[in-house]
Specification:
- It is a single chain.
- By secondary structure, the protein is of the alpha/beta class.
- It is about 40% helix and about 15% strand.
């Protein structure tokens, strides 16, 4: 009896040690699981000949949707209950003649441990411009870069979840179709949300984060931040603090100016969330000579910089998901 009791106590000791070890794994540990190799693998596949530029409603877009869904299946990241196959289907007629067939948003979900009804949406569009006069528009930066970033963030949060360090609020990983045709995927989602919009805390939207524009050739470690302060002062402050503590990119607010003639705030999927008074951040690297050209290829992506920008979104999402109180909308 004494020998059994001793073994039992030793076992309890090692279990306790393991629990302590897990509890010490904080957000920095999980951020470091985001790697250039992983980002590069996914991006090269998304921007491959096989996927033919991922035009909405066409073969390549369908292949990309399957590719993303299979990643989530392999990683054992669950689908939302009301999109059990990882697809939110959008009928052809919704695209008003801009799609040859039905299309789909790809969605995956990590439930929150304490406030599961509150949702952080991390999004990127995975469609691009397809084939034009026999040439593939690969869309490596636009937006295979953002799509790969969303997948990498999901993997990092899943590791935390499996360790018992999962987010307190829920995370929805939303891969949007139809952006190039007119923000259709995000409009459809916000008109047919899988979770109530009033429970959506924020949308972090990643669209073109793998390149450097002409204005930053001498300071490559940057990212444009658009919209962070439009609806919530706290969201802006959280992103600033996450960057200062963990990543140290130069945050450029040039395109956040209401008077900027490019009007980027209104030109990507986050805007359909902002219209519903949901705080957003649009992460962006600016345009370049290969924007919307067949020459936007994966060999031109700066993968180390893509990793840094991905980590910034991860750290901001971590704080949003785990802080005691939901951020406040204090602007209109």
């Amino acid at each position: 009896m004494k020998k059994i009791s001793l073994l039992f106590l030793v076992g309890i000791f090692f279990i306790a040690c393991g629990a302590v070890k897990k509890s010490k794994r904080g957000e920095t540990f999980y951020a470091e699981t985001i790697t250039t190799e992983e980002l590069k693998k996914d991006l090269y596949q998304l921007a491959s000949d096989e996927f033919e530029g991922r035009r909405t409603g066409e073969k390549g877009q369908k292949l990309a949707a399957d590719y993303l869904a299979n990643i989530y299946k392999e990683e054992k990241i669950e689908a939302p209950k009301n999109a059990a196959n990882y697809f939110q289907n959008i009928p052809k007629k919704y695209f008003v003649g801009r799609s040859k067939d039905d299309s789909e948003n790809v969605v995956a979900f990590i439930p929150g441990s304490e406030k599961p009804e509150e949702i952080i949406v991390i999004s990127a569009h995975y469609d691009h411009m397809g084939l034009d006069h026999g040439e593939i528009h690969y869309g490596a930066d636009d937006d295979a870069s953002g799509t790969s970033a969303v997948v990498a963030i999901a993997r990092a949060f899943k590791k935390a979840y499996d360790d018992g360090n999962g987010p307190k609020r829920s995370l929805l990983f939303l891969h949007l179709t139809g952006e190039e045709e007119g923000l259709f995927g995000s409009r459809y989602y916000t008109e047919n949300p899988l979770y109530p919009l009033e429970n959506t805390v924020a949308n972090l939207n990643i669209d073109m984060v793998g390149r450097v524009d002409d204005a930053h050739k001498d300071n490559r470690d940057f990212v444009y931040i658009i919209g962070a302060d439009k609806l919530s002062t706290e969201l802006h402050d959280i992103n600033e603090a996450a960057n200062k503590e963990h990543v140290n990119l130069a945050l450029d607010y040039k395109y956040n100016d209401e008077n900027d003639p490019n009007r980027f705030y209104y030109r990507s999927d986050h805007y359909n969330f902002a219209k519903h008074n949901i705080p957003i951040i649009f992460y962006f690297n600016g345009t370049h000579v290969d924007y919307h050209q067949p020459t936007d290829t994966p060999d031109k992506i700066d993968y180390e910089l893509l990793k840094k920008r991905t980590k910034l979104v991860f750290h901001t999402a971590w704080e949003l998901a785990n802080r005691p109180e939901r951020i406040v909308v204090d602007k209109k």
